[in-house]
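Intended use. Records like the one below are meant for learning the mapping from a protein sequence to its folded structure. Do not use them to infer anything beyond what is encoded.
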Amino acid sequence: MKMEKLSAPLLLKEIEALLTAGVYAAQARIGSVHPPLHRTEEPAVANAVPKRQREFAAGRAAARQALRAAGGTAIAIPMGADRAPQWPAGFCGSITHDDHWALAVAARTDHWRSLGLDLEDASPLEDDLIPLICTEAERARFDIRGASHSAKAIFSAKEAAYKAIYPLTGRMMSFHDIELLTLGECAFEARLAVAQPPFGRGLVMEGRQRICAGRLVSFVAFGQGS
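Structure written out for the chain above:
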């Protein structure tokens, strides 16, 4: 699928269409001039290549905008020892990017426990990656036989689900630890194929997904009580 030029207002509108109440989104163009990183954020990319530094700066800029929209302040979001963003107390969020844009979502934790957001180009997933991403059951369920748009949608859905569940479990997972049950035009269901304490095997996660101008965006949220 061809990657089309996408304006900031249109991109944000598409992201906001995925979100649930109380979740706020923001975007920042990679390579644009952004406010300097906070002192506690700088070590994360001190030795990184310039491309990664630009991606990180745009991601943090978007995250601070999302925090402000959620009622927070634009404070530091350092990287933890596990390389995950450390959101300020009382808030949760997620950051993602492609080669051009960084996106972030944020929410208060009195309503939402954790969020997961993923941005990919909507081109087919390469044939040799499919066995790494998709289980045999998924390949049969969604009739995946080679380079596939469905496989890329599964990849993005699993990325969003993992990013949402990881802050609650602190456990690394493989792509086969999450299985897609349904995959529609705007929504999907995924379940844990293995237990991830405090969650047991079989936990079902509902997510949303959207394609805009050759980009695929996936979103998963854990509410309080999930």
